[in-house]
Amino acid sequence: MDAGGISDLDLEKYDADEQVKIICLGDSAVGKSKLMERFLMDGYRPQQLSTYALTLYKYTTTINGQTILVDFWDTAGQERFRSMHPSYYHKSHACIMVFDVQRKITYKNLPNWYKELREYRPEIPCLVVANKIDADIKVTQKSFNFAKKQGLPFYFVSAADGTNVVKVFKDAIQMALSYKKNSNDFMDEVMRELENFDLESKEETSDKEEETQEGKPDSA
Ligand SMILES: Nc1nc2c(ncn2[C@@H]2O[C@H](COP(=O)(O)OP(=O)(O)OP(=O)(O)O)[C@@H](O)[C@H]2O)c(=O)[nH]1
Ligand SMILES: [Mg+2]
Asked: PROSITE patterns this protein is in (predicted)?
């Protein structure tokens, strides 16, 4: 909208039929940037320094003959301070909230992220993503009930091997679009689909099994 200097990317905007903004939330090092990179470049570089500047990824896709421009926002490492600048949330249409299945603390912090999200964006679709399942596939049998309690769609993913990454981002785009169009149809459809989802069926295991290596940082 605010075209200062018009770059090639800005020009795309004017050709797009629809434009949505999708934000990513979650503790540091849960894999937010890797997930974006995985989806956008279908590649994965195992080592990278934390993000220190806000990164905006532009993605164009065609859905039902319409050109959709998606702005994916990745954080500036502000999450270390447990709070994002309000402009991060401004006019966003969907949120991908990520935790690391190998570090329980990142799961425990989800309610804080969710609370802040809802202060700024009470209604936007929010997808909960359990990342790094490649490190130990058994985690998909543990119960992570936060999403269920809040009535949010939940996905087990891996930025490392790509499991479910495309699914999450495609669903996020669809939900962002339907939010913008003020319809809950797609959201309902996804919730129904996820209820029958294979991995989800094993979720009623005990809370104990949720214990992982709490506080253990990823080795660099
Ligand atoms: N095993 C495994 N490691 C991953 C996966 N995704 C990310 N990582 C690793 O986790 C670390 C953090 O990933 P980032 O994508 O930088 O995490 P981030 O959430 O963007 O972190 P900040 O930018 O600091 O907020 C990196 O060392 C990645 O290589 C995954 O799916 N599996
Ligand atoms: Mg990052």
From this structure: RAB (PS51419)
- Give the separation between CA 138 and CA 124, rounded to whole angstroms: 31
Q: Is the pLDDT of residue 1 over 50?
A: no
H or E stretch at 186: helix 185-195
Mean pLDDT of the chain: 81
Spatial separation of the C-alpha atoms in residues 51 and 25, rounded to whole Å:
13
Give bridge partners of residue 98 from the DSSP assignment. 129
What pLDDT shows up at residue 10? 54
Q: Whose CA is nearest to atom 27 of ligand 1?
A: 47
From atom 6 of ligand 1, which residue's Cα is the shortest distance away?
A: 31
Of residues 110, 102, 104, the one with CA closest to residue 219: 102
Report which ligand 1 atom has the smallest distance to the Cα of 36.
15
Phi, psi of 159 (to 5 degrees): -70, -25
The pLDDT of 142-147, averaged and rounded, is: 94
Percentage of residues in the chain having pLDDT higher than 70: 71
H or E stretch covering 166: helix 165-180
Q: How large is the ipTM?
A: 0.99
Report pLDDT digits (tens) over 65-86: 999 999 999 886 666 666 788 8
User: What are the backbone dihedrals phi and psi of residue 166, each rounded to the nearest 5 degrees, phi first?
Assistant: -65, -40
Burial code (b: 16+ CB inside 10 Å, e: under 16) for 118-156 equals eebbeebbbbbbbbbbeeeeebbebbbebbbeeebbbbb
End-to-end CA distance of the chain: 39
